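Hi D.,

Good news: the full-assembly prediction came through. Inputs first.
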Amino acid sequence: MSIAVRNVVKKFGSFSALDDVSLDIPDGRLVALLGPSGSGKTTLLRIIAGLENADGGEVRFDGLDMSRRSARERRVGFVFQHYALFRHMTVFENVAFGLRVRSRRLRPAKDAIRARVFELLDLIQLRNQAGRFPSQLSGGQRQRVALARALAVEPSVLLLDEPFGALDAKVRQELRRWLRQLHDEVGVTSVFVTHDQDEALEVADAVAVMNGGRIEQVGTPEEVYRRPASSFVYNFLGNVNLFHGRVDDGTARINREATGHLVFVRPHDLEIARRATGANSLRVTVKHINAAGPVVKVEATTEWGAPVHVELPQQRLADLELNKGEQIFITPRDLAVFADGRRVS
Amino acid sequence: MVNAIPASFAPAVSESPLVKRLLIGVSVLFLGVFLLVPLGCVFAIAFGHGIAAYLASFHDPDTLSSIRLTLLAAGIAVPCNLVFGVAAAWAIGKFEFFGKSLLISLVDLPFSISPVVAGLTYVLLFGSHGWFGGWLSAHNVQIIFAVPGIVLATTFVTFPFVARELLPMMSAQGNDEEEAALTLGAGGWQTFLKVTLPNVKWALLYGVILCNARAMGEFGAVSVVSGHIRGLTNTMPLQIEVLYNDYQFVPAFAVASLLALLALATLVVKSAVEWRSAVLERGTK
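Then the structure:
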């Protein structure tokens, strides 16, 4: 089922949580709402679910206006940030809940419910935990139960609020891949909220980057990463070095003084050399070298004292024989210039 | 375990054994003088002339009528406060609305007001010279010095108990599970019965027990509105006073022993509830 959000506005008192937000989610996609806390991403998700009412605008499922329908009527599967499993029910009862509360006319027979629940428990690989209570499960297991519970009612769309937020790094990695696989198997249109750019870029078909109650950019992970539409997106989607600069005849120059243009360079887009190799080469002093991990992270400062972060392969560090306190030159291979938050070069 | 663990730990709070014993001794002594001795006294006097005399106390029609009246008052007040308490706790714990803090203070009002004052208020409202007294007597309705007044006073005095027990729990649990139930297609009533209520059932039971104990034991407010008509408007606590003032010590203490037993039963149920929730807690951790 496709989701269309049209000019949605939401205020909490004087705080504008969503400011004229529109978004199209085609059928069967897995979309991430990515943004820092307070950007309105969870509010948007809750409005799509019907758990919150918009002050203006509308939400359509397959072209049908849902604004007047309650969460109950929208048939969405919602996975809460802290799972919200029914603590007094077993895993089995949790998953069966959505089927058992149906009116007699629509309720499947006992055996059918049982079969459906075990089918889902197989899907989340927790068949042997059916009789346990939520508090007896690990965080990752609870998350999977919450997902199975939401899927049990065959929702028209699946909405997940920070689905991996409360898990540790390792489990989070596994669950991410598992969610992607699950989505490919089940195929239900899904939207998930996250503040973690890696998670959004790795899992989603499309990413909507949010900031201050607005959507800054929508695109595939590659699009938003390669061609950020605003300085905010560029900044949010990875580490950046920030310089002042200007554009002369279509060429960007890095300046020492503020000139109204901002130049963004990703740490891995900086070339390190012993000598200046171009017009944009800057002399920097190496302050710290961190060689733990797959890439080497070098911290340096420019002549005017601004910090610069550079990432380079281990091999390159060995070739350079770099030492702390040395003076070297950095040259951007790729850069982006923004004026007033918009990209100009 | 690789690291060696010392065989004995010093307790986190280390005080000399003398201080420990002194503190325990003071607590036990205090409880003994102010609780156990009076309690023992009640039963000692009640059974002072043998079991036959004790049982004979309950053949008095006035006493029997007072027990019936107490059961009736509690039987009406407790269910009323159960419904009110759940509704109030739900509203306060799960919703944000204008005047919420005022509602919380109002729920607590009966705790902070003297029961005698509460009783007097009802007399001023419904008594023959009260605000509604003229209208009520014109329509032949008697509230003060009759059963309705006793039920009203009991309900007023006991209404915070259920709400107060539920409130902290309902606020702490938040709305997540209710919202989850909603998105899974459950209606409001289903959500309440299958999600909200099971999550607070032990607190609810405890609240009802406390409410009931207070409803049966209430003296002040009921005393003002009752009029002390023997066999008609005396509840158990009032009947105890009447018997005591008539120097009928065995019957007075026999009735008192019933109330004391109620208190003991309340304690037992309370411990059982707490033990049960502790076990559940441990079993699920």
